[in-house]
Specification:
The structure is a homotrimer of 339-residue chains.
Chain A lengths: L5 E4 L14 E17 L2 E8 L7 E11 L2 E12 L4 E3 L6 E8 L3 E9 L1 H8 L30 E9 L7 E8 L9 E10 L2 E12 L2 E13 L4 E11 L2 E14 L2 E13 L8 E11 L4 E12 L20 E11 L1
Antiparallel strand pairs in A: 1-2, 2-3, 2-4, 2-19, 4-5, 5-6, 5-7, 7-8, 8-9, 9-10, 10-11, 11-12, 12-13, 13-14, 14-15, 15-16, 16-17, 17-18, 18-19
């Protein structure tokens, strides 16, 4: 994930004293638009869609203030945008809105609306992330909310999170609890623990959310290994809200070719439960990203979802009212620009 | 149109390598508020309105990244704001939200929500633009959407645009197609071709949008010539959605006087069709803009609309529920500040 | 009120001429999140809330352009945000959206949505401001709108304001009129006059708003005196919409202790009118703010509201549907980060 943000250093301006010398506030974002040609059974659609290359379109402000002695304060406000129509997506800084205190040795305490630990494996250990026709989440049931009324597969409001410090010899991790404040499916507790060193990155996560007297749970194990000529990805996700559950297993690879990257993934979703036992799906995705700079890319992605039973997963939201049991396929060509 | 934006140059901060040396991200905007005294027949209103001097109130972010070899990537996110009440107008970055790849020799490919080619003549070749009591669009039927259900007179969602490069000896031009994605009156195709050299600027545009089985079309021809002591403007716009149509012809001038500009325009709208044949109107506008700097002006504008038949055009939106056939007049005093 | 904003000086970038040398545009804001434990009678709630330390969460852009000769143009766009859920609060730049012309000797003319003169005493002369469980406004009836349908106790749309210049030997003041534009309770006229010199700051305000044939009025007198070891605050507010009225009297103090500040306040609200004569309340608040830098603090606040009659004031909005006549108490621990 390449991010080249414009850093507005206070120090540049000679207007702040030494206390702020290390402090920065950044404007950052992504504008990613593409042409999408997608099918669900006999239905086909041609649309402009956004967010086909790892990151969806977004705009944000974030900053870190060095408080001295290894301590820092940070904020992060990030909104989702739909530049094909100009609309904001969701409620405001719905991607993330947090304030943090962090210490080099003791880790980070983070408050606000944030990604859950459950989210990261699905996103990080997939060559296509969770966006576009090739996104690994296309056949994850309930995405971005979760199975059976849980709303915490990706994000949680009113959360308190703790992140391990970065000096643990490659180990990283986080725990989070989120208060429901009276809303069903919004209470969350979860954790993630990983190890990254050299070419290897591996992590496991667990999360749970009570929904109407039942308990929604998800767990995942994933990793990536970069051989240089090829980087391999794998992730296994299971979400359960008894008597229903779904497993999602994904294998992927990316191959750098000059300024470009060839990417491929295959994923399999297996749903269990009364009346949905046969509603399984397989997704295959193939793509090429050509980086014009560290910030800007053009890309093309092809993907097919084979649905079984009454599964009606599609490669693109542009396919509204998808046909149960029908396969879906799509092609996407776009520009992704990060700032 | 004077725009002095704050350019946040990455190079200033010593945090990015040479690849970004030519890259900029800008925060820009306009806050324009005025006191409006307006009448429609016997009804009068006193209100605070926004956007009386060429540009309405807005806030945006835009940037360009030099990719080398004449190639550049750009984004533009621009929201409309109503600072008299603090409200955002519309859906988000509703004025414009685009991503582009452009090349010095090959022109620009632009995706997203953007102005249609149809819009520019009406705006560019009028001394008052399309805002305020003197705005040339006050007697354009359906503005900002279009006649008979078309929504593409000013902007289009899901658009793919191509702009000619700037080295064509004064010729400029653009074509645009926009996908409706299931929404009536939103599919658009159009083009604009112009020539600007020295004091002369002249352009023609054409656009069309299918609406419920019929075809909405608009065409315009306009230009300006700057004699130094006076600049002259003229534009002719015709929009048609058979059996209805409207023509709008405008003549204008601006005279620089020290740090100020005196502006005047006269426009005539002629509507045709069953039951609306007599609904014509004439608008006369007179104004003075005093520039306190390149970015800031105070201004006063007076305008009158003479309605015929059942025409009910008004000089200001503050006049809700206008009286059919009654004349409308208005006076506006304001401050316009660009950043 | 500590504000350390990132100032993006145009002069830094070498892109603007000398006319803009003194001009700045700033991105600024606050992210303040806390854990709130609150009770109303037997009902208790545990929630994440925002804005517990003087300033609520917000994001804004503001700028000043030096026009020469003592004249300047300014804009201010400030939005309210709720980072616990990521939502924008209200309509856009609802905290303030203004454009100004100001002169060193003649004062400032300001247009737009702005704070009323009525607001400032309640906010400025309280150690807790008007936010959090200790906020002085918790027992002000109708806050942030006003008694009996008036909506102008804190802010007004469509306002024209005049501020005295700053060179009047310590005297400061402002007058404001706001146009209703057809909305009940939105027409406002008011003024504030104060004197600040050395350790002393004292001010009085008056405001009125017609509501459905009656006249809403508020008046306040407040001040602070900084003895160094302790700063004392006092404010008296009376709002009336006959036959109903309420008085609110507050005393407060703050004591600096190293990098921290201990704060305390007691307030008494007395409501009068048919059926509400007994609905009075007392609030006591105690807090400690520990500043980690000029921009960042951690804080803890405890507060109790004793309700009489059918008064149902609470220490936190998280207590929806409060119990009439029951006491409310709360504890809040948070992080406040300004940028």
């Amino acid at each position: 994930m390449i991010r080249s943000t414009l850093v507005l250093a206070a120090g540049c301006l000679g207007l702040h004293g030494p206390a702020l010398a290390q402090s920065t506030v950044s404007l950052f974002g992504t504008v990613d638009l593409n042409l999408t040609f997608a099918k669900s059974g006999e239905r086909s659609v041609r649309a402009m869609d956004q967010g086909g290359n790892v990151l969806p379109s977004r705009l944000g402000f974030r900053g870190t203030e060095d408080l001295g002695g290894g301590l820092a304060a940070s904020f992060w406000l990030e909104a989702a945008t739909l530049p094909d129509t100009g609309e904001f997506q969701g409620v405001g800084w719905q991607r993330r809105s947090t304030v943090s205190l962090s210490h080099n040795s003791f880790g980070e305490l983070r408050l606000g609306r944030d990604y859950t630990p459950s989210f990261w494996n699905v996103s990080q250990f997939s060559p296509f992330g969770t966006v576009g026709v090739g996104g690994s989440s296309n056949i994850v049931e309930g995405w971005p909310f979760g199975l059976g009324g849980a709303k915490t597969l990706v994000r949680a409001n009113n959360s308190v999170g703790y992140f391990l410090p970065r000096n643990l010899g490659g180990f990283y991790g986080q725990v989070m609890v989120a208060m429901p404040e009276g809303q069903q499916g919004m209470k969350y507790s979860g954790a993630r623990l990983g190890y990254a060193s050299g070419s290897l990155d591996i992590a496991a996560s667990y999360g749970q959310t009570p929904v109407e007297g039942r308990r929604y749970r998800n767990a995942s194990l994933g990793g990536s290994y970069d051989f240089g000529v090829v980087k391999l990805y794998a992730n296994y996700l299971r979400q359960k809200n008894a008597p229903e559950s779904q497993t999602h297993a994904m294998l992927g690879l990316s191959v750098p070719v000059g300024a470009g990257v060839i990417k491929a993934s295959i994923a399999r979703a297996n749903r269990s439960g009364p009346g949905v036992d046969a509603d399984d799906a397989t997704q295959v995705a193939l793509g090429y990203v050509h980086w014009l700079s560290k910030r800007t890319a053009v890309y093309g992605t092809w993907s097919v979802v084979r649905n079984k039973g009454n599964a009606a997963y599609v490669v693109s939201d542009a396919l509204s009212d998808p046909q149960a049991g029908a396969n879906s396929r799509g092609l996407q060509f776009g520009i992704s620009h990060n700032f």
